Predict the 3D structure of the following.
Amino acid sequence: MPRTTATRTASRPGALLRRLSPLLAAALLMAGGPVIAPALAKPPAKVQKSQKVQKAGKAARATPSADPTLVQAGVPAQVATALRRAGVPASAASFYVIKLGAPSARASWNAQQPMNPASTMKLVTTFAGLQLLGADYRWQTALYADAQPGFDGTVNGNVYLRGRGDPKLVPEEMAKLVASARAGGAATINGDLVLDRSYFADGLNGNGTIDGEAQRAYNVGPDALLYAFKTLSFTLTPDPVTQTVAVSVTPELAQLKLDNQLTLTNGRCGDWQSRATPSVQPQADGTVLASFAGDYSSDCGEHVLNIATLSHADFTWGGFVAEWQRAGGRFTHLPALRSGKVPRGAVLLARHYGLPLSDIVRDINKFSNNVMARQLFLTIGAELDRGGPASPERSIRVVRRWLTKQGLDMPGLVLDNGSGLSREERISAYDMARLLQQAAASNVGPVLVDSLPVLGVDGTLRNRLTRANAAGSGYLKTGTLADVRALAGYVDAEDGSRYVVVSMINHPSASQAQEAHDALMQWVYRGAP
């Protein structure tokens, strides 16, 4: 078979987000109130309790495999049965379901037990961000220089790129910053590129990853100058006509080179990823070489491979240099990468304001983007607890103060990085439900709901219950870690009522329990009968 040809491209605006959408998705993870009777007039407490016990007993007998204690707590028999089939004991699950405006829960089990919520913790971060920063909040990134551009457009001295934690500083946004500087007269840079990343504290990425998979996009850590999620997105496209496999990459980095030695084959696709993952290595001349070797079957079709590699500084340096050159800007020599703060007296060349927070929370929640959530979490502390670089500790203080002012004291809450990608974070189903009830009644409620995956339609719920009547009626954040499955948000019943629905499962068999969560959502859609 002939060898393939290498293609080195950087897709423009829309393509980056489309290609990074899989990583956005990867990335991108109790005693309760009584069950209320449906009667308009409440019977005496003893009679009401007797009726509920009888009803629960009948349901349990009708479904022998259902745990009767769960059913008695209001959890539907089909959910309890699904848990048992998955090998998940009742003690490893928590549920809380309440109609908005109702005085007590429709279902409550283990609801006050702090659980690992995985990515449903992003609801705390995004609601706090919307309330504390405002839906229109925008991050700023600025470019400074030692001197004004000369009459010929030459900037003599260093240029300084200062970041303030923009979660979505992607190529199209960097291009706007560069275009602004070029429009102001800057044409040639005669100096080095200094990155000012001091807005965030040092050492935020020093504790390793949760699973040891450092090159996975969902494990990218925060940075004041996060660029394009610090992720290379390679697209592999087989062409049976030319018998080649084209490889393209986005974003473009000035130092990145491709060596494509993939060979197109026939036959079953199989485990294409293990055969096609490139080796990405720095070279002696300062370039970084992404080498592809091996076979790729035409049966595989087009695939996107996301790899988190290089340091934040190297990644951002390469992105800025590439965008400057793309815009027609020049360098008298390739600028060295340096780190430091913008000096007093530096000249502002351009300032760019990123996308509004209302857009950012959509990406965070729809696609469960971990690093974007961590950027927002740190920004909350930086803006509301000033006096030093942003740190998780500052953000935790701010969020706890905010919760207290909201009347949402949560003694069992454990915050770590605000994304849910943590083995430490904890919240109870009851407290999560209280937060969601508060959010629904707040001025940012519509923005938060709009940011959530829609059941069977988009985001991390796009493939769930697509043919069920409940499709399109649920707005919920999902949470996934090894041993954790969680669900939290809102379900609109067919009678028009809106329910808050929270469930967390912490167990080695949690991955087998999707049926239980699907059954829960469908039950609520039917009005939680």
